[in-house]
Every structure is written in structure tokens, then in C-alpha cells.
Amino acid sequence: TIFILISKNTSSLLPTIVSRCQIIEFHPVDLSLMTSWLEEQNHLPLPASILARLAKGCPGMVKGDRLGQLIENRELIFSIIEDWSKRGKLALIEGAESIVSFLNREKKKKEKEMEKQFKKGKSGKNKTRQASTEESGETFDETMDSEEVKADIEGKSRERLDGLLQICWDFFKDAALLQMGFSADKLIHADRIDLIRTAADKINHIEHHILFLNQFHKQLLFSNVNQKLALEMLFFNLFPV
């Protein structure tokens, strides 16, 4: 039996697991190749050059459902930042609440999808399990199915939050590049340069904010915390109020 384990960050895996794996690295696709490939696609929601940077060398990020999620994540984060530039602290509080509400809606949507899949395959699976348990004399605990579904939904929600925080991280990276004098064509979100420039003018020591976001990012994803309060704390530390 061969197991294929895919991870964006091997340091997040247990050393005992990594030591037993044959590691095969997949390097990001070159930016110019990604841009050329995207230019051949139809009905893109953003210019190919911007999508290529957002994808970070991963074609799968800008295809199908993942592309839709990427656009949704981007629109939500930028709406919060734009609101902050106009209304300050109140916009950050409402922004944290809007992210939590968004994640909860996505969870419910996923729960309905998983419930349909579970009901569809339940009868066939139960027949197979009944036959195997009769042969072995073992019993099967039906709660395993619900636990697996719950774990999958939580994993998808965590992945969605990761995507939202990644957009935020990219925004601060762009603002730092502007502060250092780089031109707009070097930015990931080049089409939102006016808003990025506003942030670059308002926020001092952006590199410190990037480091804080990177550290807080991991805590928020892998700790059992109140998401709304954690996001408020994150935003208050990132954006001057």
C-alpha cells in the first residue's frame, strides 16, 4: 500500500512522519509561463498578470472552484481594508465579524454538500460493511462517519481562513514594496494600487506588521480560540486606528 501525503509546508508535519517519507518537491511554475497560460483562457475575472501572481506558481489555484474562492477571499479582504481607510476602528470590528459570518456560511454550505454525499453513499457502504463485520464478528460504529464529516468540514474552513489571511499578507507585502520604491508592475494586487498606496502612507514599519501577521496566522489556524476576538486583535495590530 502506498500513501501520498501532500503538504505546502513540511515543517508543520510530525518529524516521525516526514522521516518515513520519500519527499518529492514540486516547484512553482514560472511567472511568465503562468501568465502566458492564463492569457489563453477565456472569461478570466481578473487580468492574467494579476491572477498569475495570486496563484504563486500553482495552476490549480486559478481553476474551477478554487478560482472562485480566491476571488471571493480577495474581495472580502479588500472591502474590509477599504472600509478601514474611511471609517477606522469600527470597520475593523465589523470586518472581523464579516469574516466569521462568511466562514460560518461556508461551513453550512459544506455541511449540506457532505450530507447529500453521505446519504447517497450510505446504503451501499452499509451493505459492504455489514458483510465484512459478519465475517469478522466485529461491530461498526456509525458515529465514525459523522466524525469524519465534521473533521473534513473543519479542515475546509481552516483552509478558507488560510486563504483570507494569505490575501491580507500579500496586501502588506505590496504596501512594503511601494514604500521601498518598487513600481506597480511588481505588485500582486497591482489593480488596487490606490488603496495599497493609502495603506503604505498610513502604516509605519510595515515589515514588522508582516512578521506579526505571519506568526499570528499560524496561531489562528491551529489554536482553539474565539475567531472573532482573535481577528479583531489581529486587525487592531495591523491597521492604525
Notes on the protein architecture:
It is a single chain. The protein has 241 residues and is an all-alpha fold. Helix content is 70%, strand content 0%. It contains nine helices and no strands. The longest helix has 48 residues.
Question: What tags apply to this protein structure?
Answer:
70% helix; 241 residues; mainly alpha; globular; 0% strand
Indicate the overall shape.
Answer: globular
Instruction: Return Rg in Å.
Output: 22 Å
Helix content: over 70%
Average residue-wise pLDDT: 85
Number of helices: 9
Strand content bin: under 5%
What's the count of strands?
A: 0
Gap between N and C termini: 56 Å
Biggest sheet features: none
Order of SSEs = HHHHHHHHH
Gist of the model:
By secondary structure, this protein is mainly alpha-helical.
Write the layout of secondary structure elements.
Layout: H1 15-18, H2 31-39, H3 48-55, H4 64-87, H5 89-136, H6 143-179, H7 193-202, H8 206-222, H9 227-238
Helix pairs in contact: 2-3, 4-5, 4-6, 5-6, 5-9, 6-7, 6-8, 8-9
